[in-house]
Amino acid sequence: MLSTITPRPVRGLVIAEVVILAGLNLEQLVRRIILHGPTTAGELFYFVVGVMIAVPALLRRRFPERTATLAGAGIALSLICSAAGFLGKPAAQIDGDPEILALMLLTGAACHRLPRSLAGVLAVLSGLAMAAAPVLRYGDSSAVLTVAVLWALLWGGSIMVGLILRDGDARREAALVAARERERLELARELHDLVAHHITGVVVRTQAAGVILADGPEHDLIKEIEHAGAEALGAVRRLVMMLRDPGHATPVVTGDLVKTVEAAAGEQEGVTLRLAPGLANLAIAPETVSTVHRVVLESLTNVRKHAADARAITVTVEPAEDRRHLRVEVVNDGLRPSRTRRSAGGYGLIGMGERIAALDGRLSAGEHGERGWRVLAELPLPGGAAVTR
Question: Which residue intervals define the domain Signal transduction histidine kinase subgroup 3 dimerisation and phosphoacceptor in the entry (predicted)?
Fold first, then answer.
């Protein structure tokens, strides 16, 4: 599973959308009052609904995971407004530019982010809302029919933009997956050709020395070196198999996870360790132990670089609620990285994500609370969080 970084809304686009929608609503209100005299109850109702539909359109960037709800709410308000206009007296003045712009933004977002079936349903409903609104609200004159055709064309344009963005995301994701696969295979080849070759040489020479010094006092020490080399060779081969085939099941061992986390945290001031009971006896692959070390070490390094004023840093390592993942969380109360001067590097988080993705884990990093930053890694535990005795 690919790692993810918490997305942030693009402030420039958000500000532009707020200004445009607010300006259109203000222009519509002023035009009705100054140029067309007193506003009727129906026209005022359409204006209020248009303002209400603009709200979910603006919130779609802040809450992308709720795109379906926001788009559905905006489309429902528009359809209700059109139904009320059809049942009541048609308004005399054709209007609704802010509402149509808001519906375009919601339709494009739905086609961009949502699953195909749900996006298709919302696209059809938004098309009905946009194309039928002029006729239902303002009658069936030639001018109204012209506006209906224009709004239908705008609906088609919003769908096209959403699909273009969707296709761009799919291409970028495919390119990212392909790049990671190439990097994984390249790393596997290097491990196999270089590291495994040299470790094999060490093991063979140690075995030869054991035969020569079979009766000497160094025999036990040589046997220990041979055993350590064989274990290292086995770990490298398991890692190569995992890199070549991410679905390869890595044997679990009892890793000294507690000492690994303590070593990564060191004796840094302000760091609080929260380790779940029984963590030292957790059945875990050695590759996961090394990844935990990397996550903690890199996260604390980033705190020193980007949040030097942090006074409280909490490192939490515990099995997740599903008992199938190990949660590694590093939280600090310093300034958010977006407010600090970034270093010229910036590849630590990317490298951490690549390493976690190779283990089929998840990584998220983003703002936490009013003042702080959190890095959360979830690493799979083969067979669940079984603790050895």
Answer: 183-246
pLDDT per position as a tens digit, 29-48 = 777 666 655 556 666 777 78
Task: Find the domain containing 69 and state its range.
Answer: 11-175
Tokens describing residue 213: 């010094």
Do the Cβ atoms of 131 and 150 come closer than 8 Å?
A: no
**Residue 105 in domain:** yes
Q: According to the per-residue pLDDT averaged within each range, which of 43-47, 210-214, 312-316 is highest?
A: 312-316
- Which pLDDT belongs to residue 341? 39
Query: Is a pLDDT exceeding 70 seen at residue 327?
Result: yes
223 and 335 housed in the same domain: no
Highest mean pLDDT (candidates 4-13, 70-79, 246-255, 334-343): 70-79
Q: Residues 310, 333: contact at Cβ < 8 Å?
A: yes
- pLDDT value of position 133: 87
Residue 290 lies in a domain: yes
For residues 197 and 169, state if they share a domain: no
The structural domain count of the chain equals: 3
